[in-house]
Amino acid sequence: MALKTKLNPMGAFGVKYYTLTVITSPANATCVLTVNGVQYTTKSLRVKAGTVVSYSVSYTDTTTKTGSITMDSDKTLTFNRTYSTSTIYQPWTQPTATSSDRYSTTSNTNYNGVFGAVGGSIFAVESSPAIQNGDANALWKAFQSTNTAGYFSTYVATANGYPYITFYNPTALKVEKFTISNAGSTGSTDANGYTPSTGDILASDNGSSWTTIKNFTNPDANCNKGVVWDLDVPSSASAYKYWKIVAKTSKYLKTTAMNGRWQTTHIEVHATIPQIQYTYYFDLTIT
Question: What secondary structure does DSSP assign to 60-94, as a single string?
Answer without folding.
Answer: TTSPPEEEEEE-SS-EEEEEEEEEEEEEEEEEE-P
